[in-house]
Structures are given as structure tokens and as C-alpha cells.
Amino acid sequence: MTADAHRTLRLAPHPAPFLIGGAEVTQQLLAEELAAAGWHVSYLGSHEAPWNGATQLPGMRAHLDAHRVPYDEAEGALLYQWNGVDCSALMQNNVEHVSGGLLRALRPDIVFTAQEGSARLAALARPTALVAGLLHSVSATGLGVLAGRPHYGLAVSKFVRNRAPHTTGTRIGVVYPPFARPRPATDTERTRAVLMINPIPAKGSQLLHQLIRLMPKQRFTLVEGWWDTSADFAAYPNVTYVPRVYDMEPLYRSHRLLLVPSTVEDAFPRVIVEAALHGVPSIGTDRGGIPEAIGDAGIVLPPTAGPEAWARAIRDIEPEALGERARTRAARFTRPCLPELRELGF
Length: 346
Description:
The chain has helices at 22-36, 57-66, 95-106, 118-125, 140-143, 158-163, 205-214, 230-233, 249-253, 270-277, 290-294, 307-316, 319-330, 338-344; strands spanning 7-11, 40-46, 71-74, 77-82, 85-90, 110-113, 130-135, 152-155, 171-174, 194-197, 220-223, 239-242, 257-260, 282-285, 299-301. It is an alpha/beta fold and 346 residues long.
């Protein structure tokens, strides 16, 4: 079978490039790498937001129009092509039904699936295709795909691999997320402001409120993540709140430091490596895969550290020297992933 005859089907919560979190970016880049290698990639997801079930179709249409990407709509689905990948944005309750139809029609060689409903989809695809479950977190949802007994479990960090339960018939290996190389540097001036992305309770917003009040002369830039929390920070004169954006490069280039005060066990936060690729080191909590992502190119604080310890770390850090070390370390993640999949046995 020739390379361009191979088909891969990706079943994910949301199609590229929308409703993006770390898991979605990882899947988007891997799908684009497969497409660039000559595979026919079909990417299915939902246009309904996971936090409230509301459709995101108006914003999706506007984004596609702005990028002059043609699209079709049929029976509540938005169909388009993004960077060589055939994308379908469906109503959530139609994903499994449409996936079953595509499995029969496309007869894919490989199926990648993750997150909500992935165990059922893995079990559905397993008899006729090689199935890879993407293990993006250690939550019940993140590891739930293993209940469908995929042939492979692709853990995004050693932390996730060590927390994944043994599953008969499933080979679990670590494949760190892919990252795109930054565009050529511009003359953007770095401000003294520090950056935080997705300021919600699970990501440390309670500590962030204390820190903002403790450091009134320090500027903070907060970027909307899973949902809009701008009203929670509107009273602070030293806070700039940025609505959700698809291109983070200008923000990384204009800030000197990234804060990752998560209260949950993040698997391998993409933002840490993305920021590092632009010379921005991170201060993060010693939870989950955060220390694994930061390595020796940032500061890791214990979960018990209070706002005073965080403020001291912000004041004492040497962002230029540490930023260059972070950039060098992060460069190793800007590599193709397909050779690693072959080594696992794909």
C-alpha cells in the first residue's frame, strides 16, 4: 500500500484549530504531520464547548472566513480542510454515530482517539484498525480510553505513563507532545509583566488573586482559557486580561516569565514548552508533570508554597539567563513524532 493510500481517523473532543487546549494542539500537530507525510487524515470532533455545551459555530465560521478557508454545513456539521486535514465539527451526540459510519466507509489503517467517549470509540474501531489512545491526563476522562483496550496508549509524559493502569493487550509508551518551531524572531520588546494562561481555580487562580494583591506594582497578563474569567479580575489595576487567542507567539515574545500555579496534576503543560521556545522560563507548582516539563530551566515550588514564596521567586528570577537555557531545552521537543511511533511498533 502506498503512503497516500494510508488512512488515519482521529476522534477527538474538538476539531483543529478550535476549542484549543493542550490536548487539542497536540492532536492537531500530529494530524498535520501525518497529512504532510502523505496520509489521508480525517479529524472528527464537536463544535459544542465542553464547559457549557454551547455551540461555537459562529466563532468557527468567522475564523474560517478570516483565513479564507471554504467550508460546508450539513445537518448540524461544519466540514472544512485545515492544513491538509479533513475536519468535521459535529454536535456532541452525533460523534459516535458518525464515527461508526466513517469506520465502515473509510476503513482506516489507524485510529487515534482521546478524552470524552474515547473508550467506546476505541472498542468500536479495534476489530478493524490499529487503535492508539492518547493519554493526555491522569483524570478518569484522560485515562478512560484504556477501558476500550486500544492497541497502544500514548502517554504525553513519564508521569502519565507511571499513573496509567496496566491494561491487557495495550502497550503504553511515552511520546512527548510535538511542538512547532517558532517563527523568526522580531524586535518585540519584553515588558516586565508576567504571563498566566487559563486563570481558573484548577490552574491556581486562588493563589493568583493573592499574588496580584501582594504585588501591586507587578503587571500581570492573564489569557482566557477554558472559559472567560475576566470579571473575576476586573477590579485589579495591575491586570490585563486577554480574550482567548489562537496565536500565542506575540504574548510569549513580549513577556519575561510564565506562571503555572496549578492545583491539579497536569500531565505535561504545553504552555511551559511553548513559552520556553520563545525564551520565557516558567515558575510552576511541583505537581504532576509540571516539573518534567520545566526541567532545570525554571523554578518549581512545592504545592504548599504561599503567595510570599511566589512573589519572592518572581523578584529573584534571572529571566534572561534562564530563558536561554529554557529555549535550548525546549528545542528537543520540536521534532517529528512519526519515527517515535515506528519505534513503538506502529
